[in-house]
Write a structure and sequence with these properties.
single chain; about 180 residues; about 0% strand
């Protein structure tokens, strides 16, 4: 149990720690950016909640297959869960996007933050539609079969490696030097 739980706990700790670090930078951008980030993150949770349900469901289904020592069914249902996760994200986007203005009104976001919120959501929706299921449901399928160490190490390494490469590229572009900051 410890061998299974510890890597996943470390992964979640680093992921949430990364979120705290990002928040520290966003706070420095001013109140509008903080509000836009908070509303965007909360709105994204609404959009991926159905996919998250599939991700959680996959742990139970694959775990049952592995417990029954039926690897063929585990592979079969693993593919189905990833497919169902992708479909659920696409259905969520298609069903909820027309109501985005209404959803945002529920948050009572200040008028001056709406532009930032729409930009943040647009940036998130594109990769969400293409990659959410394989980056969230598939790791749970693997974890349910006991492949916890691999999924946790891959998540940790790629999270920091990819972020580092992107930040280094941004730094060398010098575009970060031309940003307006709140005083």
């Amino acid at each position: 149990m410890i061998n299974t739980s510890l890597p996943f706990a470390m992964e979640q700790l680093c992921f949430n720690g990364g979120g705290i670090i990002v928040s520290m930078f966003i706070v420095k951008l001013g109140t509008e950016s903080v509000a836009a980030n908070a509303v965007s993150n909360s709105t994204l949770m609404v959009f991926y909640s159905m996919g998250l349900a599939v991700s959680n469901l996959s742990v139970t289904i694959i775990g049952q297959c592995i417990g029954a020592k039926d690897k063929k069914m585990a592979r079969y249902y693993g593919k189905k869960m990833v497919w169902l996760g992708e479909v659920s994200i696409l259905v969520s986007l298609a069903a909820l996007l027309p109501f985005l203005r209404i959803i945002l009104k529920l948050y009572q976001a200040p008028e001056n933050t709406l532009g930032q919120i729409y930009i943040l959501l647009a940036i998130a929706f594109v990769p969400m539609a293409m990659l959410w299921s394989t980056s969230n449901v598939l790791p749970n399928v693997l974890r349910a079969a006991g492949d916890v160490n691999f999924t946790s190490y891959v998540s940790l390494i790629t999270m920091w490696l990819i972020r580092s490469v992107i930040f280094i590229m941004r730094f060398h572009s010098d575009r970060w030097l031309n940003q307006k900051t709140a005083v």
